[in-house]
Amino acid sequence: MGTQQVTEGEKMKKFFQILGGIFLVLVLIVAVMVGVGVYQGAGLDASSKAYVEANVKPVVATWSKDELMSRAAPQLVEIIRKDPDQLDQLFAKLSKLGALKSLSEPKGQALLAVNAGSGKTVSASYTESGEFENGHADFNIKLIQIDGQWRLAGFYVSSPIMLQ
After folding, report:
1. What residues pair up with 128 in beta bridges, in sequence order?
2. CA nearest to 101, candidates 134, 63, 59, 131
């Protein structure tokens, strides 16, 4: 009397309801994380592009080692200090391009990476071209964000003048 037995079918139905609820919660968590990432990514893209627009010109307009070093991340400074003459020679060669006439609009984007061991890394990669009095140069610019501030992590130049 009054004793009800739970059938196997009812147990399975209950199990799948719980499993479906857990799956729904996980989907919502992932959707929120993606939404936050997209929102942050748009802001990082805008700030990194603005940094490139403001900071490449002072370096290439004068081919100044000091201008580059004042914007360099510690990792880039360490690389340059290993062989400072190499940068001097490179900039001497590039200075033969003459006066800067124009820079193209930077193209690229920021990247937010999360690593369990090292935490969050915010970087960006851009390309840009410059027209000079005596030729053309293409730039590949790598940025890293340190304490909320963008810094140059890599500054690569390609120009036909390098072959002369």
Report:
1. 139
2. 131
The pLDDT tens digits of the residues spanning 54-69 come to 999 999 999 999 999 9
* Residue for token pair 């890293």: 144
Gap between the Cα atoms of 155 and 153, Å rounded: 7
125 Cβ neighbours under 8 A, 6+ residues apart: 108, 109, 111, 140, 141, 142, 143
**Residues 111 and 122: beta-carbon distance below 8 Å:** yes
- Residue 135 φ then ψ, to 5°: 155, -165
Task: Give the span between the Cα atoms of 85 and 125, in whole angstroms.
Answer: 26
Query: What's the rounded Cα separation, in Å, for the pair 134 and 138?
Result: 14
For 5-9, 41-45, 159-163, which range has the lowest pLDDT when averaged over its residues? 41-45
Query: What is the CATH number assigned to the segment(s) 8-163?
Result: 3.10.450.590
Quick one: how far is CA 162 from the chain centroid?
A: 27
**For residue range 131-147, what is the model confidence (pLDDT) as tens digits?**
999 999 999 999 999 99
Per domain, the residue ranges of the chain are 8-163
